[in-house]
């Protein structure tokens, strides 16, 4: 009996010694960052946005710096795990060697969840960096939704969407609230009107489609860090953006033929000369359809 009592005392002593370590352990806090480029400070034309542009290499550095600022802001608020989706153009813009070693980066296409690939229900908050206004906006810098070349409107359940809305709906499907966004004043206003009072870092004010009054990169990065910290800190006050199911997608094209050809699919309804409708079980199914619209070509290889 004495041996049993001694062993019990030893076990209790070990547990007591481990208790302070358990109390000191950081609780897990996962943050997902989706990064576009049109909303980065200083971006106004294709000169900054495409690899052939004479300012692209500099501005992918500024995009990376804004993501770094968001990462630091999230960590200031206690984030322990961070995933970043490179969501602009070819999905190969971020200078990944400059990101912290413990950050996971989603790159290139195709990917079923588009700009939100990598998110799931284990995340506590989502952040949008460098986002722009929708294709129906009359004021935003480089305003478009998914494709400025082919689409004139994208709506979910009858509501015209910016990319921030589509991304927020995907986050909401997994129960994750969007807590902060950066971009021009039109992009931030659109997102807040749709999602509520999320934190907004307005890094430039739109003058026209190709002009803006912009903050300097350093000032924008400081603002983003502060807004992301505040947003992640307020995550419990903010609700996920959840769409009613099934989810109805309405898309309008600039040209006639895409709607005609797509209507040959039994899952697609042609609703006008330039428009179609697809109804998905949920936003994930709609996202996969949008990725098909944006990415399919008969010439795809390999």
Tag the structure with descriptive keywords.
7-stranded mixed beta sheet, globular, Rossmann fold, 35% helix, alpha/beta, 5-stranded antiparallel beta sheet, 302 residues
Walk me through the structure.
There is one protein chain. The chain is an alpha/beta fold and 302 residues long. The chain has a domain of 186 residues: 3-Layer(aba) Sandwich (Rossmann fold). The chain has a seven-stranded mixed sheet with strand order 3-2-1-4-7-8-9, sandwiched between helices. The chain has a five-stranded antiparallel sheet with strand order 6-5-10-12-11. Strand 7, helix 5 and strand 8 form a beta-alpha-beta unit. Helix 3 packs parallel to helix 6. The model has no long low-confidence stretch (mean pLDDT 93).
Compile the SSE list and pairings.
Blueprint: H1 2-24, E1 30-35, H2 46-49, H3 56-76, E2 81-86, E3 104-106, E4 125-131, E5 151-156, E6 159-160, H4 163-173, E7 178-184, H5 185-195, E8 199-208, E9 211-214, H6 217-233, E10 247-253, H7 257-262, E11 268-272, E12 275-280, H8 283-295
Parallel strand pairs: 1-2, 1-4, 2-3, 4-7, 7-8
Antiparallel strand pairs: 5-6, 5-10, 8-9, 10-12, 11-12
Helicity range: 25-40%
What pattern of helices and strands is seen along the backbone? HEHHEEEEEHEHEEHEHEEH
**Termini separation (Å)?**
73 Å
Shape: globular
- Low-confidence residue ranges: none
Mean pLDDT across all amino acids: 93
Strand order of the largest sheet: 3-2-1-4-7-8-9
Radius of gyration: 22 Å
CATH class of the domain at 30-139 and 162-237: Alpha Beta
What is the CATH superfamily of the domain at 30-139 and 162-237?
Dipeptide transport protein
- Fraction of residues in β-strands: 15-25%
CATH architectural grouping of the domain at 30-139 and 162-237 = 3-Layer(aba) Sandwich
Instruction: Summarize the main sheet.
Output: 7 strands, mixed
Q: What would the CATH topology of the domain at 30-139 and 162-237 be? A: Rossmann fold
Would you count the extended β strands for me?
A: 12
Please count the helical segments.
8
Output the structural class.
alpha/beta
